[in-house]
Amino acid sequence: MSILRSTSRLRPSRVLSSVRPRGQISCESRRPSSSTTATATSYVTSLLRKADYENYVATLFTPSQSRQAVWAVRAFNVETALIRENVKNPQIGKGRIAWWRDAIDKVYDGKPPIHPVTELLARALDAAPLSKSWFKRILTEREANLQDPQYATIADLERYAENTAAALLYLQLEALGLQNPQADHAASHIGKAIGIATILRATPFHVEERRFYLPSEIMAKHALSAETIFRSGPSPELEEVVFEVATAANDHLITARSFLKESPPQAHPALLSAIPADMYLQALEKANFNIFDPKLGKRNWKLPFRLWSAARTKTI
C-alpha cells in the first residue's frame, strides 16, 4: 500500500507502513438446461451487482470461460453471508445454513436443488474441480458467526478471514483451473486482508445493531469497551484501535505481493479482490482511521481504473 500524506491530526506512527514483510427455494433436484442456466446467470449477476459490486467488477477481468463459475462461487458467498444480516433468530439461521450444506451435497451428487446459485455451481463443476471442503468451511464459519462471537485477538480475526474470504479465493483459483502453492499463499494473505477490512468497513453498521467485532485485546489496551462505542461513537482511542487492525490487514497485502511475484500469471484474476480492500484501507488512512467518516461509505469511482491497471500489470 502506498503511504498517504499525513494530515495535521495523523501522527507519523499512525501511517500504514511496511511493518513486516509477510430465502430458501425448492429442493427438487435436476440437471440445469441451457435456458435455466441463462436465467440463473441473470439472477446471480444481478445479486452480485447489488450486494457485492466491487468484487463483481473485479470478476469482469476473469477469462470468459471461467467467469460463470467464479460468479457462482461468489454468489454462494453472498447468499450465505446475508443469512446473519437477514435473520435475528440464530436457530432460523442454522436452518438456512443446514439447507445450504444439503444443497452443496446435492450439487456434488449431480442433483442440484432448484436454485440459481446451485444450478450455476453444478455447471461450474462440469468445467472445474471445485473442492467441496472450501464450501463446507465457509458454511461452518457462517454458522459460528450467527452467535455474534467476540474476537479476542487479531489472530481470531485472521482465522475468521481464512475460513471465509480466503476459502472463497481458493475456490476462485480452482475455477481458473489452478493449483499452485505460491498462488495459494497469496490468496491466503489476500483473504485475511479482505476479511479484516470487511469487518472494519461494516463496523458502523454493526454498531447501529449493537454488535462489535474488533478484537477485545486491542480495545482493552486503549481502555475502550463496545458499550462506550455504542454510546459515544468516534473517539481518538477508537482511531488507535482501528489503526492497529488496519495495519494487520495492510501487512497481509504486503506479504501477498511477495507471493504474487512467484505465482503464475493465470492466477491473477482470482486475486484482484485485493484491490477494493487496498482502496478501502487507503481511504481509511486518509480519514485518520475514523471508521465513522461518511466518505468511507461512498463508492470509489476510481475502482474500475485501478482494477484495469492491476490486471494489465499483474499487480495488486
Low-confidence stretches: 1-15, 17-30
What fraction, in percent, of the residue positions are helical? 55-70%
Distance between the termini: 9 Å
Beta-strand content estimate: under 5%
Average pLDDT confidence is 90
CATH topology group of the largest domain: Farnesyl Diphosphate Synthase
Order of helices and strands: HHHHHHHHHHHHHH
Number of domains: 2
CATH-derived architecture of the largest domain: Orthogonal Bundle
Helix-strand category: mainly alpha
Notes on the structure:
By secondary structure, the protein is mainly α. The protein folds into two domains: 29-147, no CATH class; 149-316, Farnesyl Diphosphate Synthase. The protein is 66% helix and 0% strand. It has helices spanning 34-51, 53-59, 64-86, 90-108, 116-127, 132-145, 154-175, 181-208, 216-221, 226-232, 236-260, 268-271, 274-286, 303-313. The model is unreliable at 1-15 and 17-30 (pLDDT under 50).
Key features of this structure:
316 residues, mainly alpha, Farnesyl Diphosphate Synthase, 14 helices, 66% helix, disordered N terminus, Squ/phyt_synthse, Isoprenoid_synthase_dom_sf, 15-cis-phytoene synthase, carotenoid biosynthesis, EC 2.5.1.32
Write the layout of secondary structure elements.
Elements: H1 34-51, H2 53-59, H3 64-86, H4 90-108, H5 116-127, H6 132-145, H7 154-175, H8 181-208, H9 216-221, H10 226-232, H11 236-260, H12 268-271, H13 274-286, H14 303-313
Helix pairs in contact: 1-2, 1-3, 1-5, 3-5, 3-6, 3-7, 4-5, 4-6, 6-7, 7-8, 8-11, 8-13, 11-13
Brief account:
Its EC number is 2.5.1.32. The chain has helices spanning 34-51, 53-59, 64-86, 90-108, 116-127, 132-145, 154-175, 181-208, 216-221, 226-232, 236-260, 268-271, 274-286, 303-313.
